Design the sequence.
């Protein structure tokens, strides 16, 4: 558990953040310069707050009133940077052992063999960093941080330097960490696909403050937070379950409280839990059941809210059997449809508009 309430002035930039991060992965999301890395560095002890308090797992690391400021090396935190920062003259095994050996045997809470197995790096133990791919280096860096048996794992955009293929390689390993080792993770990112896949709790950063804190599904589905989640990314996030696959047509069926949903074929087993992102710009609306149309996903619901948006657009949210679906339509369409709260309406979405990055494995 991380408890943080700090203030720090860095030139013209003023950081003023209060948040609590529990089990699982807490993601700090926001544009460059919003204060994400500053928060992580304050927790790590690499920077000092002007005032405030930081506690991890019940241990106070910083308290300006009590005069407490634990040195970084004594905070028992793991830190994974963008570039891995492995020791080039040491083998992978020796890099991992660096973290392992810094913890007294009686205080070790993470098993060496388990880390190697979870991260899939057993075949790399004899190599040196120069012989590793970018994704392999990051997996080793994560392993070294874990083997320090940290109270919390800090990850500052660990995938930012990787191409899409290497990023896809590392993401599943990070998703496994909190569950397998019961270590809370504070994860910095400005990539929505990472947040969708990893975050249990989301912190939206803006101008040095935590503008909103809550579950990933709730915050990403709020129309009033579009300016923080990204206009192009705006839309609802729904939890769903893989129902079945239709290999003849390359389709996967998902079920959720509002019914069923068809997307392009997913490489996931039936029963797998997923997060589905439905972009508002891709959702069309109808006030009557559509007839013979090519759209495969037609969800019946009731209008919850109709809100004017920028650029002659209108945000419409629907309750589809307990699942919130968000659509953005033109002001002209709204003038013709005259949608209002309580009205029956239908959300329409083509299966092909849901990209692979919009469906996140949450097993």
Sequence:
């Amino acid at each position: 558990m991380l408890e943080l309430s700090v203030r720090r002035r860095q030139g013209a930039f003023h950081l003023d953040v209060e948040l609590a991060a529990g089990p699982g992965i807490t993601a700090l999301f926001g544009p460059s310069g919003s204060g994400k890395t500053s928060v992580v560095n304050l927790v790590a002890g690499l920077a000092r707050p002007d005032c405030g308090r930081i506690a991890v797992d019940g241990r106070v690391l910083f308290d300006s009133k009590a005069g407490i400021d634990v040195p970084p090396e004594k905070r028992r935190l793991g830190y994974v940077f963008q570039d891995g920062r492995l020791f080039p003259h040491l083998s992978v095994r020796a890099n991992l052992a660096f973290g392992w050996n810094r913890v007294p045997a009686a205080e070790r809470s993470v098993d060496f063999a388990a880390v190697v197995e979870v991260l899939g790096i057993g075949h790399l133990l004899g190599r040196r960093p120069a012989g590793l791919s970018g994704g392999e280096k990051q997996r080793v860096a994560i392993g070294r941080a874990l083997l320090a048996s940290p109270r919390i794992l800090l990850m500052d955009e660990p995938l930012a330097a990787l191409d899409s293929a290497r990023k896809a390689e590392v993401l599943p390993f990070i998703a496994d960490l909190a569950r397998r080792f019961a270590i809370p993770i504070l994860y910095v990112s400005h990539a929505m696909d990472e947040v969708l896949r990893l975050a249990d709790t989301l912190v939206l950063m803006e101008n040095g403050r935590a503008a909103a804190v809550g579950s990933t599904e709730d915050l990403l589905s709020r129309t009033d937070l579009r300016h923080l989640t990204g206009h192009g990314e705006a839309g609802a996030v729904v939890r769903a379950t893989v129902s079945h696959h239709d290999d003849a047509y390359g389709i996967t069926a998902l079920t959720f409280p509002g019914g069923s949903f068809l997307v392009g074929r997913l490489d996931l087993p039936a029963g797998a839990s997923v997060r589905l992102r439905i972009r508002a710009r891709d959702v069309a609306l109808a006030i009557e059941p559509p007839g013979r149309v090519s759209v495969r996903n037609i969800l019946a619901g009731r209008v919850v809210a109709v809100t004017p948006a920028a650029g002659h657009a209108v945000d419409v949210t629907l309750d589809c059997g307990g699942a919130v679906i968000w659509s953005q339509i033109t002001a002209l369409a709204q003038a013709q449809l005259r949608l209002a709260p309580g009205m029956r309406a239908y959300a329409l979405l083509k299966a092909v508009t849901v990209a692979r990055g919009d469906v996140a494995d949450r097993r």
Notes: The mean pLDDT is 90. The first strand starts at residue 2 and ends at 10. The CA atoms of residues 109 and 149 lie 5 Å apart.
